[in-house]
User: Fold this.
Amino acid sequence: MKTDQELRSQLWQLDGSSYRAYKAIRGRYDFDEFVLCVDYVQGDPFAAPSQLRVQLPLAIAKFPSVLLASSPRKIALRDYVTRQFAQIARQVAQRRGSGKSGSIGISKVGPEILDRSAVCLTSEELEFRFTVGLPAQGRRILGRQAADLLCNDIPEIISQLHYTQLDNAELQSWVETNEDAEALRSQLLPQGLVAFIADGAILPRASGVDVRPLANGAVPWQSPESLAVTLERPNSGPIRGTGIPQGITLIVGGGYHGKSTVLQALERGIYNHIPGDGRDCIVANSTAMKIRAEDGRSVTRVNISPFINHLPQGRSTTDFSTANASGSTSQAANIIEALEIGTQLLLIDEDTSATNFTIRDRRMQQLVAKHKEPITPFIDKVRWLLKDYGVSTILVMGGSGDYFDVADTVIALDNYRAADVTSEAKAIAQAYKTERIAEGGTEFGALIPRQPLAKSLDPSRGRKEISIKVKAIEEILFGESAINLSAVEQLVEPQQLQAIGWALIYLKTHYLSGAYTLREICDHVVEDIQTHGFDCLDNRPQGNFAQFRALDLAAAVNRLRDLKIKQLSK
Ligand code: ADP
Ligand code: MG
Assistant:
């Protein structure tokens, strides 16, 4: 292995050469305290930046072993140092004033603590994966600046990431908060709950485009007494809050009184949050799936017949495909697909639902007879979902009291304050009958397992064998096909989409030839990543992957416009 001094003199010698000569610095360098790996060197100054890694021995970083004592602790520590790396790199780059050429970048992260490949951990070392824009003037190498960047700045950044240089109290709160949240989530099922919102939690965000907590005037969560439970935390002791029981829960209240904000907090409850986020003690069942209308999406061979029947022109709904779903058929497909992968909790907001999917009142039943209406509304299926498959629903519904009949729990929001109005709602349901005719039959209906076929996944684009590009959290460009994930609202980081894109290739090579169902495939992929790490997805080390669920991977598969699938009989 060459040394940092050799790298420095090599870069000096390259000064003034044409940019492509940078390719020569690929390799590993011994920097005494750590090893620098230059894995990929960009071909020109305007291309995607170069990819580097630093391997820092734990013996040198000196993190106390208690910070690494559990899996949630390790994830939180990696999350914390990722953020610190980004911040220190920014300061160093600012001082240098070097702009894009000379930039040092690591995965951009939000308020969730996620398992990411940006910082990996083995029993011996921490590995930082980041990018560098190698400095240029026009298309000539700026060798001295590059030497400064790689041989001075990077060691400086890394030296500030040793335990003794970090804010130890903050780091400790990171690992403890993450471990506590994990513990809270694990108590849900045994307690018969699907979600928990701690007293004092701050739910609203700074704005529609700013995920930080609302700074002024936020009303902290306070649980209604009747729904209050106390859960245990290994680090911070017991905590009281609202336990949302299994079953069907309605969130009602006047417009602008905070209903959707509660649901959004629950959607995010599948993730743990950083200290100070306000939602670090809000947790939901990890299989919770936000369901919404998504007109225009493609659907391939889904049995949507529990919700949709006898479509015009005699189209099949037990084996339904379309390149352009309507609001209600897309929402039906979204539910069925989530059930297929094993969701236990549906989260639905009236704001993003198709009205005719959600309700159908007595008068409409009278005017448009059942045999003329293809849709069986959700209200007639929500209890069968619970009874037949044990699937709970939390539904925001300010617009229709018909749901009082089918709800187990009704939570009202009044000026952002929650009240348990279940018995009031039940009394009203008795006093004012809807006179609806139940249209849901005597069961939910069968779930038909499906098997994706290998020919439906083609990652190639032009001469490139593999082309995966990600647009924010909206879209994966997989080969030539765009997978639109903007309606899969629980994806929070582009790195998740990046990982899903590579997981699609992985599942094709590993699982499509066997006779696995989509559910088995997605479960296997997630398990493989848990066992072997993100590196199983690609043989080159990638720094821009983040965790995703089997449900999210299936959501991407299901949105492939050229998906080929086989329905299996039960
Ligand atoms: P709804 O769905 O009931 O119409 P929203 O959840 O969209 O209402 O909330 C309306 C507004 O109130 C949003 O701007 C939101 O940020 C704000 N808000 C929600 N909850 C709180 C709270 N607990 N404290 C202060 N503001 C809140
Ligand atoms: Mg709303």
About this structure: The longest helix spans residues 71-96.
